[in-house]
Protein: ABC transporter domain-containing protein
Organism: Panagrolaimus sp. JU765
Amino acid sequence: MIFTIPSVAYAIIGIGLFFIGVVTSMVILLLENLVSSDDTLVVAHQICSIVFLIVPQYNLGVAISRLNFIYGVYITAEQYLKSIGRRDMLGQVPLPLVSRWDLMGQHFFALIVDGLIFLIILGIIEYKHVIFKFLRRREQRTTRKLLEKYHKDRKLLDEDVQREQTFVENIKNYDDYGLVVKGLSKGYSGEFLAVENLSFAVEKGECFGLLGVNGAGKTSTFSMLTGRLIIGSGDAYIHGNSVVDGGFNSFRLLGYCPQFDALNLRLTAREQLTFYARIRGIREMDIEHIVDWAINQMQLLPYANEVSGSYSGGNKRKLSAAIALVADPPVVLLDEPSAGMDVSSQQFMWNLILQLRRAKRTVIITSHSMEECEALCTRTAIMVHGQFQCIGSIQHLKEKFGQGYTLTIKVVHKEDIERVKEFVRKNIAGSFLQSIHCNTLFYRIRGIHCSLSLAFGAINELQKLLPIEDYQLSQTTLDDVFVSFAAKSENDPADLGDVTFDEIHSPPPDRTQESTDLTDPPNH
């Protein structure tokens, strides 16, 4: 990618094209002045005159120069006739025709041809015609080679991930699901596999969470789902419409809130929502009503007519979410939806996502907040090095990959710490002392060695023997599961097959999710 900032790209390309137009025009005009005194320049002039016709800026510049020449002849004739008192003969001056081929005609014709050619190229780019099918085949070859290369070094996937892959392969009707991702892969530069064989299905009314450290492949996955990147291998189906073959039909069903707010900071919220509503093809007569609905839904009414550059970070995220929802899409992708928000705005965004679920929208989010995923997601997958390492409900992941329980004991007297350590060591199997801060001891308890009831019983006995000020016994959080995978990937990035802690053979997570209602947007 040459440019990363659109405004910089626009400025540099504009200046560059202007410079090309000026230079080519000056070269031709200079050769025309010199050719009368040097016959050897005739061929150079003829070649340049033909080659430069492909440059629209040159054609426009030379055409204006020719017009200026004809106008100069007219002014000179007018001044001469006026000086001899025969201005009445001005209409008889034999001025060259503006449209004459060797003056402006060829340049006007070249401008028309250039315009048609560039319009066709734009159409090919926009509609992913033949050339993009070729690029897609090249991407597929690159990704296929990388898949074959890395497949030999991979251990077996987690049983839940394999079960999800089998489930996706057996889906007969993609219309029954909000989003189906089937064997999605993406390779870069023939060396790096960013996304490797992802398969999952998200039901209508479900919120699916993608977790992973930076570089895990979340952004590449979202970029392929939204069409920003060509899919290297596999496909995705949005309400039954293929992303690879469906073109714009699939993207019309998609709302996308990027990680970094894609806002025009000089426009107001109302102007931006109106702009995107028109892009999404909403009828003009309905736009005002729908924009008002979105502004009220996002609690942006007090700021609706202020430029978005003056908004707080939370309000910018709200506006980005409103843009994603303005056409009432059935599938919504939210990349770090509450990043940079204060607690109040974060809670608002969470409530919005829950409302989307109740309204039977399919929601896919990426997040670094485990608390956010626990509050919102019906199912979650953790990505490491472009692969799913686990997938399932939050409770299922905590039970299967969690490290049992977390025990915190706060003693009244510091001298009792050693006695507490000895008691826990003897009476709570699988306990591991993590740290001691002041009078507080922090333990991990492996669930496979000690049940929750036995741990509570032992702590009650300890309270009878020693003065315990406070204690807390809780299940492992999703943070602990995530950190376990992240730590394992850093220590041994090529081997993630053994990332299981106290694995409990619990039943697979139920794929059926309840859902019951976001204020319905107006019909359009």
